Here is the input.
Amino acid sequence: FEKKVASIEDSVLNYNRLNSKHNFDNFVVGSGNQLAYTAAQKICEGTSNYNPLFIYGGVGMGKTHLLNAIGIKMQKNLNVMFISAERFMYHFVRSIKSKDMVNFKDFFRKANVFIIDDIQFVRGKEIVQEEFFHTFNSLMDRGSQIVISSDRSPSSLDRIQDRIKSRLSGGLVVDIQSPDYELRIKILQKKFEEIQTTFGENINLSKEVFDFIASEFQSSLREMIGALNRLLAFVRLTNTECTTVSQCKVILKDLLDDKAKIINVEIIQKVVANYFHLSIQELLSPRRSRSLARPRQIAMYLAKKYTTKSLPEIGRKFSNRDHTTVIHAVKKVNQLMLADEYIKKNIIEIKKKLHQ
Here is the structure.
């Protein structure tokens, strides 16, 4: 029995070691992630009753960094289990095949702090959801702290059992929003300083270069840091400087080209329709009910924002509507984003999906 538990434990640790580099000290805080950061800190201090703590946000927004930081801080005094939903599924399936479910249950339910990353990966996996539900309840019963991350809110998780969504929503649900320009600059500068220290180098990047990277790579912090690493690798290998935007465009040409290719009107229509649970036919139909008109206006607004199509071209993509309809849609959505927090949040979430 001991040997089998040790086997599971060794296998989990091999894939899920906490990364010492992802701690609270180097997590850069801004308006978009302040609430999530504060909640994570309170969990570690034991001054809150947020259980579970559910953190959601788009790809590359810092969710895993924050979960990792919680694990590092709490493992000093507590038994911390940090695992991705994919690895949880892997161990579950392996335990079924080896008829070793008793040890699986014992191992995953003994944690004082249970941290699971990217819970959306259990969507549609009924038998895994069943086990997760019982693991969740067992941990709650013994007073363990649970921390969960996802790319969307609990209510937006499709193909997840309602009782699980209810449990996930039962504590504190916080989102990490897309970082604003100031936060992106702070993150770039922090990362740049870390790399300089690590390699003992003295590379010069101009303010214009930082501004360019922060402006071009808005949707994912991971992509933005990847672009910075690409620039620094080029400077290091060629022993040249990169101080102008034109140099950046040459070095990052393929990354910028890939970004430009991704979003077109058809993709926007598909993402908006899926988000509001509509068919493309409904989105483009002549019907003017609020439930169809609002998503249609949002799709037009995003088409104007993300593509180079003219207003008449966008109108034609929406069942040959007049360009004045597109103008009205863009104006209306701009007004709603200032006055309606719900609409603003919808559009932020749709933008995240477009960039994924």
